[in-house]
Amino acid sequence: MKAVRLHAIGDIRCDNIEIPVPHGEELLLKVGACGVCGSDLPRTFEHGTSSGKYPLTIGHEFAGEVVAVGEKADKSLIGAKGAIFPLIPCRKCDPCVTGKYAMCENYDYLGSRSDGGFAEYCLIPSAWHLIRSQSAPMELLAMTEPACVAQHAVRRAKVTAGQCVVIFGAGPIGIMAARWVRIFGAEPILVDIVAEKVAFAKEKGFMAVNSREEELLGAIRTYNRGRLADAAIEGTGSGKALVSCVESVHAGGCISLLGNPMGNTEIPLKIHSMMLRKEVEINGVWNSSRAPYPVDEWKYTVRMMDEGKFEAADLITDRPSHEELPAILKELKDGTRKSIKVMCI
Predict the structure, then answer these.
(1) pLDDT digit string (tens) for 188-244?
(2) DSSP string covering 44-55, please?
(3) Which has the closest alpha carbon to 130: 154, 151, 110, 156?
(4) What one-character DSSP code corresponds to residue 297?
C-alpha cells in the first residue's frame, strides 16, 4: 500500500509498504480520506513525531471502511464506515477514569505517535475508535476530528441561544465553530487579518471582519444592536487576538482559548485590568470530548452529518493523492500554496 511517512524532520515521503494485519481487537481500515491539520506542518518540518518513532505515517483527521478485523473483534464490523477517534487513552489515569480522555497522562495517538491516516490502510486499536456513520460522505466524515474540536470550543464558551459570539480565525476550524454557534442558536462574527479568509467566510454566508481594515468593536456593536459580544473564541494562538477577545466581550462575558500559542503571550496592563473589571470567564480548550456524558461530541457530530445538519466538506479546496501530498505539505509550509483545507484521497 501507499503511505505518506515521516522518516526524519523534514524528510516526508510516499512509500510502498505492506498492508498491516489486524490482531486481537484491532480493525483494518481502508482509508477513504484524510485531512491535513495545521499541526501536521510543524510536526513534519520542525518538531518531528511525538513518540520519536520513524518512519511514521502521519495524519489524524480521517475516516474509512473496515475491511478486516482481528481474532477478538466483532466480524460484523466488516463493511462498517465511519470517522476515527485518533486518541488512544490509557484508561487508567485519573483523567481517563473520569472520561477526560484528551487529558490522558499516558496516551498514544494515531498520526503523531503511531501510524495514522495518510495511507491506503490503517490499523485501528478497537471498535471504540470507530464512530459509525449511516450515510455521510467519506470526505465529510474525515472532517469529524476538527469539527469536534470546533464544537468543543463553542461548548467551552458556554454559548446559548440568542447570544453573539466573536470567533478569531476564519480558517476551517473558525468556520466550523461558526456553524456550531448557529446550530446552538447564536450568531457568530468571524474575524481575521487575511483578506482571502475573510472573503471565503463571507462567501459561506457569515458576518466577517478584517480587523486590519475595520474598527472591530464598532463592527461588533453595529452587528449586535449596540452591544459587545457575549462570548469570544480565540482560534489563532496570537496574543493580540487574546487581547481583542477581552476587549470584544461585555462584562461577565466568556472567552474560549482554542488556538495553540504562537509564542510567549504578553498581556498589557490595561487588558489585565479589563479582565478583572469585566470579570470575564476564560476557559482552555484541549481537543474534544468522547465521554458519553454530558454529550459525546463525536457521536453527536457524526449524527448531525448523517442528518445533513452539519456541513464541512465544502471547506475542502485541495484533494491531492498520496504521491502528491509530500510536495503539497512543503508548499503549505513555505506559504507558496494558499489553501483552506487539504484532503488527501
Answers:
(1) 999 999 999 999 999 999 999 999 999 999 999 999 999 999 999 999 999 999 999
(2) IIII--SS--SS
(3) 110
(4) H
Q: How far is CA 144 from each of CA 45, 85, 134, 269, rounded to the nearest angstrom?
A: 25, 9, 14, 39
Instruction: For residue 238, give the nearest of 212, 217, 213 by alpha carbon.
Output: 212
The pTM of this model reads 0.95
| Distance from C-alpha of 251 to C-alpha of 275, rounded to nearest angstrom | 9
- Residue 14 to residues 5, 31, 164, 322, 345: CA-CA distances in angstroms? 6, 15, 45, 6, 14
| DSSP H/E element including 294 | none
Low-confidence ranges of the chain (pLDDT < 70): none
Lookup: cell for 272 = 489585565
Residues with Cβ within 8 Å of 233's Cβ and at least 6 positions away in sequence, in order, are 153, 154, 157, 165, 166, 167, 168, 174, 177, 245, 255, 256, 258
The rounded distance, in Å, linking the Cα atoms of 62 and 49 is 18
